[in-house]
Amino acid sequence: MRILIVDDEQPLRDSLRYLLEAYGHQVVEALDIQDARSVLRARCRRIDVMLLDLFFQDAPDGLALLEELTADADAPPVIVTSGTSAVAHAVRALKLGARDYLTKPVDPDELRMRLAYIEQSIPSTHADTRIHSDADCIRFDKERVLVCRSPAMKALLRRVEHIVEQNFPVLIQGETGVGKGLLARLMHAFSPRAQAPFVAVNCSAIPPELAEAELFGHYKGSFTGASTTRIGLLQQANGGTLFLDEIGELTPALQSKLLTALEDGQIRPIGAHEPVDVDIRLLCATNRDLAQETRTGTFRADLYYRISTVALTIPPLRERVEDIRPITEIIVNELRHSFNREYATLDPATLRALEHHDWPGNVRELRNVLVRSMVEMNGIDLHIDDADLHPGDNGAQEPQHPTRDVITDAIGPDSAEILTLEEIERRYAQTVLNRLGGNKLATAKALGISRGTLRRKLEETD
């Protein structure tokens, strides 16, 4: 199960996390009521059970949250925790709908027994049957999450909500790395075909000479090397969804054959004497301007009109800054488990750096930056700055060792102020950073210090 721990005591959250993960559960933490509300409101992660402390800074704020949850039919079952002196509040919590309560310190065996009892009452499937376009995140296919906190993504999801149950083709457009494949999987997961196959094909990864056999299949002996009969990808998707990523990479001959298959609802594998019926919902994706390519003749206009009954465009990450933080938190949580790290936190400076980057590679680039930072991480904090976001850029100019005029700029030409050594170092580092165009890697090299030391000196201004 996925369990939300709501408690303002870090040691208690740590011990509960360790215990629950040892039992095989997944854990989400909230350090106060407002944090818990955000987790529940976002719906990025399904919460099966909430462990809720009643008291936050000597106030029974947990009761206020319980009162809010009584009106929410989708609220998870709640186990409240309290000290022995708060029994009266625990009783009130049960009247408000809490499933159970435990006194602190929590007994591990007692907790395990209560959770097992609740787990038996949870339905085996938690899949939503429709898209909630007002949510901050859409969770599907067990662990896949589409973040839609930004207005641009909410507008896109409202369109998806209206067409997801239809059967006509959809063309998904957007820059490389924006998540076209993820949106295609979401559309399949919430469609009437959700229990049938989802077959994804990267058209750019199939050699042209093999593409026809891969897509349409072939019979044994139909060409040199065809030692067995192979069912094509279109036939494998029968009854479900076929997702053709980078459809613009198909050759003109394959474009023609695909058009015929879509119009007739039939395919003819290589070497076959009779056509084979197929029933698929087609989703396509491209980062190219196919409309323009129809005018230049590089993409068939009739196929374009067939596959673009509805065209959806995913905005680039730089146009949905509100999504960067939740996407980052989701990726970091995944990486934390992959790298077997108990903790991985993001400081405010790192989040600001991520939100101010323009992300030409979109979510794919963001993931790569976070993976690289996780590999190099020391301690529990992920630190990312401008140099990490531009690993191949050492600055347009070679770092020059600052001279006396830099010191004058830092301290002031006629300053009579007595400055501490710490303040002089801070001003000096900031002035060099300004001189080098904000390039922190070049500044660190010029000063002969590490990026971490530079970061700490600059943060002394905050």
UniProtKB/TrEMBL annotation:
GO terms for biological process: phosphorelay signal transduction system; regulation of DNA-templated transcription. Transmembrane segments: none annotated. SMART domains: AAA (SM00382), REC (SM00448). Residues 2-119 form the Response regulatory domain. The keyword tRNA-binding does not apply. InterPro entries: AAA+_ATPase, AAA_lid_NorR, CheY-like_superfamily, Homeodomain-like_sf, HTH_Fis, P-loop_NTPase, Sig_transdc_resp-reg_receiver, Sigma_54_int. The keyword Phosphoprotein applies. GO terms for molecular function: ATP binding; sequence-specific DNA binding. The modification 4-aspartylphosphate is found at residue 53. Residues 146-375 form the Sigma-54 factor interaction domain. Keywords: ATP-binding, DNA-binding, Nucleotide-binding, Phosphoprotein, Transcription, Transcription regulation. It comes from the Bacteria. PANTHER family: TRANSCRIPTIONAL REGULATORY PROTEIN (PTHR32071). This is Sigma-54-dependent Fis family transcriptional regulator. It comes from Acidihalobacter ferrooxydans.
